[in-house]
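Troubleshooting: if your tokenizer reports a length mismatch, compare your output against this known-good record of 366 residues.
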Amino acid sequence: MTEYNKENPFPAKIIERYVLNKEGSTKKTYHITLDLAGSKISYRAGDALAIFPENLPEEVNTLLEALNKSGNEEITDPRSGSTLSLEHFLKAKVNLNRIPAVLLKQTGDAKLLEEDNKEARAQFIAKHDLVEFFELYPTNLPLQELVSYFAPLLPRFYSIASSPTVNPHTVDLLVATFSYKHGKKEKEGLGPHYLCHLAAMHTTPIHTYLHPTPHFLLPQDPTTPIIMIGPGTGVAPYRAFLQEREAQKASGKNWLFFGERNQATDYYYEAYFESLKKKDFLSLDLAFSRDQSEKYYVQHRLLEKGDEIWSLLSSGAYLYVCGDARHMAKDVTTALHSIIENHGSQDGKNYLKSLRKEKRLLLDVY
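Known-good structure output:
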């Protein structure tokens, strides 16, 4: 049996793709279904999928021009040892945003290259991409040596939003598009742009492999209550959890805290979650930050429900947090400390530490 992994990814195909946001939203978040038939990839609710994106053809062509190459030149991939065309290598294997520090000597800038000038070098790298670099500083390095310096294009990781019991041969993903500034350029997030726009449905091979997350799985006992906190695309694994718990006919309480910008336009999987709520399979607490004059987030909702949360944690509930590590996870942690101290009369930090030890506080933050 072929095992698919980082070195040997499976060529999946996109069989479904649509925008989840409704008209008027300031966001574009997609539901994407990949066909894994024939891969024998076996996943669990909570696992993630690693996907290798590809660079934009126009960026690759501009870089080839800057290098004065046709793209048909054969090179050896310095990592795998396989032979491929330069164009394919630049498209699928190279981080075009990253200038290798070793190439900075090509600038001939003595001040930039001074040993104690690390900050200036870091700033230069942050403000330029490979295309700009070679347009400014053409190179005479032998091609094979040059490509050996290029940084690899790394996989992107997406929480699987479907249950293997319900969908054993497909996976659903929740993918938010975004743009960002890189130096003077406005760029699209590479992974989302590839999956949501560049890759053709049913034809483009999406090179992927399973990324198991043993730290973020459902409790083995289906009677155990679970509290799931996941605003934005952080809700993805909870859709998988709920599909799985439905299939298990789990009797444990399921409680979801979800938030986004506007309820009318940004309530992902609304019909599914509301149907579960209607049949008393799911308790649902929502926080839409821009539906009122004061910003309102999931941590505010948690504080309002502090007494019930403490009661459930005291009875052995598992607590999951998924999504943005920089802001959301910190704010949620602060809210949990407050809940534990106010309703449980215990030290918040120590209590969460003990939950982590018991593997009842499970984090998937990024």
